[in-house]
């Protein structure tokens, strides 16, 4: 059955670092030319949903994000794996992915038109503040010294500046390397930071070479995962809404949604200090959000033909072949085909559980090999994953340099997560700032006066200083009450 075959292929691609969900969909499109429209859509949607989940498997077990959307999974998922609870974390990922995807699809069905209209109100001014809001999450996500987190995000922003200037086209910091004339791809950087740095750490302390990479004390328990999701049902709902809204904004996607949801989850959690230590809520937030974002990306795509991410952009072209013409009239002209697509998206969430379960168990078997063998495999996968992106040896060197940088930074107590946020969101902030200033002739007024901009500024300030303001207010109230009693 093409549907199941596509989902199995999605698990394979998502679990291989460097092979993205976008690549998987692009490869499979030609195979769907002669299929019935619904069968072709089932295969494509099946790949999309499973690949995003499967990226969490190497992120949890090996600390290498399989897809960009799995970057946040290395924070608490990998810490759980170090405790021997890797399969438990992935059970939460699996069920959370299905639940988040299901909520995202239901929101797509119910509120697609209002959300699409809201998404189209975003211009360069709003996207600039959205990027800054995402960067502010680095102050929340980073644990320990705030200065170290600030240094980390600056390193990420500096790397994001490499490439052609958006206004002049002049290459910056390229040093004569043709591949640097564009942006530095962040997938090789992430593979090096999180994966290769672990290999360097192992080489520095190879005493665990005869043990399994991840001790397996507990298997995948779907009932336990459901219990965890029910315990953190508030986080599930928050992350689902955050993911859907972020996904509905063109040009953002599941990777941005995962990081923002993790930051929001930590800020609003009853135990924010546990995030990053192998905390179950820290696993729930990003995995629910990145799958909910997939439903969100279809909102502007179906209503206005504006793709929410690169995967949707590829599928939009294929949809024209299947008789689906995106636009405001799609609910009248292609209602039957659209209903079939919605049904496929819902059933795909249910099929994700058995297919993903098999993928987790297969990966866990590999990790029972001696750690030295696993680390050697990590090196091979890191090289292949970096090279596969653009068939460029330069990306391999970028990955190696990132591995050394990650090893040195962690040794100095500088967190890696803010650097990744700076790398991902840096182009979004810079490009929209430059274009916005060109539109206004250098004026910053629209950046501050537009209603959505003002709302994002308030959200950013609340995220950064809200807790301090609340604590300060409580202290003032206590002092006032104390002085009143003494009088």
Q: What does it look like?
A:
Residues 208-213 have low confidence and may be disordered. The longest helix is centred in the last third of the chain and has 36 residues, at 451-486. The protein has one domain. It has a two-stranded antiparallel sheet. With 487 residues, the protein is mainly alpha-helical. It is globular and about 65 Å long. The N and C termini lie far apart (80 Å). The protein has 21 helices and two strands.
C-alpha end-to-end distance? 80 Å
Runs with pLDDT <50, length 5+? 208-213
Average pLDDT: 79
Outline = globular
Oligomer: single chain
Strand order of the largest sheet: 1-2
**Main beta sheet strand tally, sense and closure:** 2 strands, antiparallel
Tally the structural domains: 1
Instruction: Tell me the structural class.
Output: mainly alpha
SSE layout and pairing:
Layout lengths: L1 H14 L5 H8 L8 H18 L1 H6 L11 H10 L3 H34 L4 H18 L4 H15 L2 E2 L6 E2 L13 H19 L17 H10 L1 H15 L6 H15 L11 H25 L5 H12 L8 H4 L1 H32 L4 H20 L2 H19 L5 H24 L4 H5 L1 H36 L1
Antiparallel strand pairs: 1-2
List keywords for this structure.
two-stranded antiparallel sheet; mainly alpha; 487 residues
Give a quick precis of the structure.
By secondary structure, the chain is mainly α. Helix content is 74%, strand content 1%. The protein has helices at 2-15, 21-28, 37-54, 56-61, 73-82, 86-119, 124-141, 146-160, 186-204, 222-231, 233-247, 254-268, 280-304, 310-321, 330-333, 335-366, 371-390, 393-411, 417-440, 445-449, 451-486, and strands spanning 163-164, 171-172.
């Amino acid at each position: 059955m093409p549907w199941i075959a596509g989902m199995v292929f999605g698990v394979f691609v998502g679990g291989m670092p460097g092979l993205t969900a976008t690549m998987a969909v692009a490869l499979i499109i030609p195979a769907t030319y002669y299929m019935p429209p619904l069968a072709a859509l089932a295969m494509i949607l099946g790949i999309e949903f499973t690949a995003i989940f499967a990226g969490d498997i190497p992120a949890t077990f090996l600390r290498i994000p399989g897809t960009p959307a799995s970057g946040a999974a290395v924070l608490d998922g990998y810490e759980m794996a170090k405790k021997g609870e890797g399969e438990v974390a992935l059970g939460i990922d699996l069920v959370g992915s299905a639940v988040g995807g299901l909520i995202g699809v239901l929101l797509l069905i119910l509120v697609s038109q209002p959300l699409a209209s809201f998404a189209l109100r975003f211009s360069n001014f709003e996207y600039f503040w959205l990027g800054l809001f995402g960067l502010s999450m680095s102050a929340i996500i980073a644990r320990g010294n705030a200065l170290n987190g600030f240094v980390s995000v600056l390193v990420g922003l500096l790397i994001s500046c490499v490439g052609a200037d958006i206004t002049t086209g002049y290459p910056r910091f390229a040093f004569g390397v043709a591949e640097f004339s564009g942006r530095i791809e962040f997938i090789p950087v992430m593979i090096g930071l999180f994966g290769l740095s672990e290999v360097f750490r192992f080489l520095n302390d190879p005493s665990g070479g005869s043990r399994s990479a991840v001790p397996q004390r507990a298997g995948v328990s779907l009932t336990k995962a459901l219990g965890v999701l029910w315990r953190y049902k508030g986080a599930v709902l928050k992350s689902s809404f955050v993911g859907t809204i972020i996904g509905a904004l063109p040009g953002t996607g599941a990777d941005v949604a995962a990081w923002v949801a993790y930051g929001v989850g930590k800020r609003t959690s009853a135990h924010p200090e546990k995030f990053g230590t192998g905390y179950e809520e820290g696993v729930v937030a990003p995995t629910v959000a990145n799958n909910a974002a997939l439903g969100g990306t279809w909102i502007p795509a179906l209503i206005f033909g504006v793709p929410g991410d690169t995967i949707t952009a590829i599928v939009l072209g294929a949809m024209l072949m299947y008789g689906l013409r995106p636009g405001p009239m799609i609910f009248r002209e292609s209602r039957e085909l659209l209903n079939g697509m919605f049904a496929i998206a819902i059933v795909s969430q249910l099929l994700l559980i058995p297919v993903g379960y098999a993928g987790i168990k297969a990966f866990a078997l590999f990790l029972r090999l001696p750690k030295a063998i696993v680390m050697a495999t990590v090196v091979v996968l890191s090289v292949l994953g970096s090279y596969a992106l653009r068939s460029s040896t330069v990306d391999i060197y970028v990955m190696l340099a990132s591995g050394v940088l990650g090893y040195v930074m962690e040794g100095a107590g500088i967190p890696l997560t803010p650097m990744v946020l700076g790398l991902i969101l840096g182009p979004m902030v810079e490009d929209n700032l430059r274009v916005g200033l060109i539109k206004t002739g250098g004026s910053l007024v629209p950046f501050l006066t537009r209603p959505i901009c003002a709302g994002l500024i308030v959200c950013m300030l609340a995220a950064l200083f809200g807790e301090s303001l609340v604590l300060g207010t409580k202290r003032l109230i206590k002092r006032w009450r104390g002085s009143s009693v003494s009088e």
